[in-house]
Design a protein that fits this description.
With 610 residues, this protein is an alpha+beta fold. The chain has three domains: 23-49 and 285-386; 52-269, no CATH class; 398-503, Helix Hairpins (Orthogonal Bundle). It has 20 helices and eight strands. The chain has helices spanning 5-8, 15-47, 52-66, 84-99, 208-220, 277-307, 315-350, 359-381, 384-387, 391-402, 404-429, 439-450, 456-462, 466-502, 511-525, 533-550, 555-575, 579-583, 589-594, 598-609, and strands spanning 118-119, 123-135, 188-189, 194-195, 200-203, 228-239, 244-253, 261-269. The strands form two sheets. Strands 1, 2, 5, 6, 7 and 8 form a six-stranded antiparallel sheet that branches. Strands 3-4 form a two-stranded antiparallel sheet. The longest helix is centred in the last third of the chain and has 37 residues, at 466-502. One of its GO terms (biological process) is detection of mechanical stimulus. Interacts with TRPC1 and TRPC5.
């Protein structure tokens, strides 16, 4: 139990210790102020990269090319394509109509047809669209001997080793001849395969009628065959009103099972970075970000040199290193993207009769945006390092640190049961229910079940016996038992921490109090606020009394100590005697309870006789 002497003597710690604490708090405040400036700068930088127009541009383009129905069949659009016939209907219908906007709604020509099409009259089509196909060779898989008489051809799923690079069909135009892949362009990760570049490629014409004739010719000559595994439709737009590029990719995968699986990508990016005055403000924030990065790197290098191996024992130091690494990666991505845009953008815009491959630029820009998003996430998390000096946040961090071992042990038990159920669901329902079609989907489906989002009807229909058994037992063991055990661990630890704080086992100082005190001192020096020494003493007295109550003293003991303190102050003021301080002995809580405070009465009587 803490001694009462600290409260009895007015709570004044030793001067040296008090000075060290003030220096530590002052250093923390300086670091916090500097870090807040860095965080504000980073927020301005990141928010300057995006704007709401990106969402609306993606939305209007996706509505045009994905939701527009095929003429004569309102139920068929790009999202609902399931056969080769539906695919050609889309190519000759919604795609053709969406790409070519030659006139105003009054049929008045708005611009020279030699220029690019203007989709929705505002978005310039850069160059011409490109259509690309990837195929696999025949006999890339083995037919079982009993069925060889029925089926002699076998086309496996797409891999780079199975890809067919030989010419086929008419073998005249580029769409019938294989084009080697470009090493600089990224591969595409689809639903049923990872596809590289190259393939059988053709570009569309500036004329709508020529493009339609091209589609009809390809359809009649069977450009899509059993060996076709994927078709990409790529084109790019630019909206000068909002200075945004929209890079669009429509993908139709032809799996080995038959049918078609469609997917799409709409990337609205700002490739021309510095156009308006606001853009130059963002540029200044980027320069400031680099300066902060150099300063923080120097500070961490000095800490490592000073503390050596002890530096790596703190979690906050590891977070600092992670944040620095992410910042350097973000700067590297930014420099690389700007260099590539500077080198390629002008060449891409020179020839409007060719396909302009902006997908490469958009790909790396999206990666840069992702790195920045992760960086600012950890930058916000780092604030906990500073606000942990606050009582509430200190309780939170102490609770998490104390129950860490229990949570790790619980997590092992939880994931053993969780993965067991995931494998059971995948094996039993994987061929029937989309949520369990892969092991990864089964894991995510179980997390959704815990949150209350589940498809019980699909599970029951897939297996009428194991389905309900799986669902009921999973809900019972995971939801009712394990999750409540997890909450019990957190609650019990928090109760212990709160009890410790209530009896005085808490940090010796709080950052908020120091900030408040510094503000008051500044206002007093500027003569904007009168000194309130009496009120501070009164507040200190109230704080000390409250601390004594937390340490277990009853009201009679607190009142006796207060009266004794008043007598001591009066005697010191009247006689200026140092013997009282020299003879003064701390009074512990046990001494108060045992009634051994008579020694103070003796001292007081001696002083009075003097």
């Amino acid at each position: 139990m803490a001694e009462a002497s600290r409260w009895h003597r007015g709570g004044a710690p030793k001067p040296k210790l008090h000075y060290r604490k003030e220096v530590e708090i002052r250093t923390t405040l300086q670091e916090l102020s500097l870090y807040f400036i860095f965080l504000i700068n980073l927020c301005i930088l990141t928010f300057g990269m995006v704007n709401p127009h990106m969402y609306y541009l993606n939305k209007v383009m996706s509505s045009l090319f994905l939701d527009t129905s095929v003429p004569g069949d309102e139920r068929t659009n790009f999202k609902s394509i399931r056969s080769i016939t539906d695919f050609w209907k889309f190519m000759e219908g919604p795609l053709l109509e969406g790409l070519y906007w030659d006139a105003w709604y009054t049929n008045k020509t708005l611009y020279n047809l030699k220029n690019s099409s203007r989709i929705y009259y505002e978005n310039i089509l850069l160059g011409v669209p490109r259509v690309r196909q990837l195929r696999v060779r025949n006999n890339t898989c083995k037919v079982y001997s009993s069925f060889q008489s029925l089926m002699s051809e076998c086309y496996d799923k797409y891999t780079s080793s199975n890809e067919d690079t030989s010419d086929f069909g008419l073998k005249q135009e580029t769409e019938w001849k294989y084009s080697t892949p470009n090493s600089s362009s990224p591969w595409h990760w689809g639903f049923v395969g990872v596809y590289r570049n190259g393939g059988f490629i053709f570009t569309l014409s500036k004329s709508k009628s020529d493009t339609k004739n091209k589609f009809i010719n390809l359809r009649l000559n069977s450009w899509i065959t059993r060996g076709t595994r994927v078709i990409f439709i790529d084109f790019s737009l630019y909206n000068a009103n909002i200075n945004l590029f929209c890079i669009i990719r429509l993908v139709a995968e032809f799996p080995a099972t038959g049918g078609i699986i469609t997917s799409w990508q709409f990337y609205s990016v700002k490739l021309l970075r510095y156009v308006s005055h606001y853009d130059y403000i963002i540029a200044s924030c980027e320069i400031t970000f680099c300066i902060f990065l150099i300063v923080f790197t120097t500070q961490e290098a000095q800490k490592i040199r000073e503390f050596k191996s002890a530096y790596f024992k703190s979690v906050w130091n590891w977070l600092e290193l992670l944040l620095l690494v992410l910042c350097f990666v973000a700067v590297s991505f930014n420099i690389y993207c700007n260099i590539q845009i500077f080198l390629l953008l002008e060449d891409l815009l020179k020839n409007t009769e060719k396909y302009s491959d902006f997908y490469f630029l958009a790909y790396w820009y999206i990666y840069y945006n992702n790195i920045i998003a992760i960086t600012i996430f950890f930058a916000w998390i780092k604030i906990f390092k500073f606000i942990s000096f606050n009582k509430t946040m200190s309780q939170l961090s102490t609770t998490l640190s104390r129950c860490l071992k229990d949570i790790v042990g619980f997590a092992i038990m939880f994931f053993i049961i969780f993965f067991a159920y995931a494998q059971l669901g995948f094996l039993v329902f994987g061929s029937q229910v989309d949520d369990f079609s892969t092991f990864q989907n089964a894991i995510f489906a179980q997390f959704r079940i815990v949150l209350g989002d589940f498809n019980f009807a699909g599970i029951q229909q897939a297996n009428r016996i194991l389905g309900p058994i799986y669902f009921i037992t999973f809900i019972f063991f995971v939801f009712f038992v394990l999750l409540n055990m997890f909450l019990a661990i957190i609650n019990d630890t928090y109760s212990e921490v709160k009890a410790d704080y209530s009896i005085g086992r808490r940090p010796d100082f709080e950052l908020g109090e120091m900030i408040k005190k510094s503000c008051n001192n500044a206002l007093e020096k500027l003569r904007l606020k009168k000194p309130q020494k009496d009120e501070d003493d009164k507040g200190m007295k109230g704080d000390l009394a409250e601390q004594a109550r937390r340490e277990g003293f009853d009201e009679n003991e607190i009142q006796s100590a207060e009266q004794m303190k008043k007598w001591k102050e009066r005697l010191e003021k009247k006689y200026y005697s140092s013997e009282i301080q020299d003879d003064y002995q701390p009074v512990t809580q046990q001494e108060f309870r045992d009634g051994t405070t008579t020694k103070y009465k003796v001292i007081l009587s001696e002083c009075l006789t003097k």
